[in-house]
UniProtKB/TrEMBL annotation:
Protein name: PPM-type phosphatase domain-containing protein
InterPro entries per the UniProt record, alphabetical: PPM-type-like_dom_sf, PPM-type_phosphatase-like_dom
Domain PPM-type phosphatase residues, every copy: 25-213
């Protein structure tokens, strides 16, 4: 059984998250907005990029392609790049970008791919929790605008889905025996901040998801958002995919 809860931050704004699910896969994309005043070199906004990534990813996933997830993502990034290379400066390091988190289900195993800060959280039937995350951006010694720009999609920096297909091969990937999983959650960082910023454990996060559902988790995040004074971004788009059961 799967549940999906996309949400957009208040006040009303364009939602730059996108959730894509099928019979044996789930994807969460979280677009990254450029800071005000930054020239992305692109005629398109972040929401456009996220939608184009989803449009390119969906056909091979629905066709149950046997290609590795990294190859599928690389081909997707290359196709999206080609679709606007004639109108936009796709060499600009501030081009629109997105996180990508995917899982693909097989009868005996589950594949995951995580590129940038949208984690995949798994719980075993015995209650053991494993968090598959890519926190390289949080580990940058300098988080200034210029340093972040220099580090994006560069060795020693952090990687996102934008205009460089090589980024796909920098993703965190792995495979887990299906018998060792009874719950999977895929979260954009607007939802994972419940554990990553607001002091709750991953156990608590999964308990909320499995007992009250994704919508309740987002409601709780919004309650924290409303009173926080420490986030660089007080509100953020929040999306959750929950898979549990056989």
């Amino acid at each position: 059984m799967s549940e999906v809860a996309p949400d957009r931050r208040p006040p009303t704004a364009a939602n730059e998250d996108l959730v894509l699910t099928g019979p044996d896969f789930a994807v969460v994309l979280d677009g990254a907005s450029a800071p005000p005043g930054v020239d992305s070199g692109c005629l398109h906004d972040v929401a456009w990029l996220v939608k184009r990534l989803a449009v390119q990813l969906a056909p091979p996933l629905l066709a149950q392609s046997a290609e590795p997830l990294t190859d599928l993502l690389a081909e997707t990034i290359a196709a999206v790049r080609a679709s606007h290379a004639d109108t936009c400066d796709v060499s600009n390091p501030d081009s629109p970008s997105s996180t990508v988190s995917m899982i693909r289900l097989h009868p005996d195993r589950v594949e995951h791919l995580v590129l940038a800060d949208s984690p995949v959280v798994m719980r075993s039937p015995a209650g053991q929790i494993t968090v598959h995350s890519d926190d390289r951006i949080a580990e940058l010694p300098d988080r200034s605008r210029e340093a972040t720009r220099r580090s994006r999609n560069q060795p020693g920096g952090f990687w996102v889905a934008s205009t460089d297909p090589k980024a796909a091969y920098e993703a965190v990937v792995g495979t887990t025996d299906r018998a060792d999983i009874d719950v999977i959650a895929i979260l954009s960082d607007g939802a994972s901040r419940f554990a990553e910023r607001y002091g709750h454990s991953w156990e608590e996060l999964l308990d909320v998801l499995t007992t009250a559902g994704p919508r309740r988790l987002i409601e709780l995040v919004r309650e924290h958002d409303a009173v926080t004074t420490t986030n660089r971004k007080q509100y953020d788009d929040a999306s959750v995919v929950l898979l549990q059961g056989p």
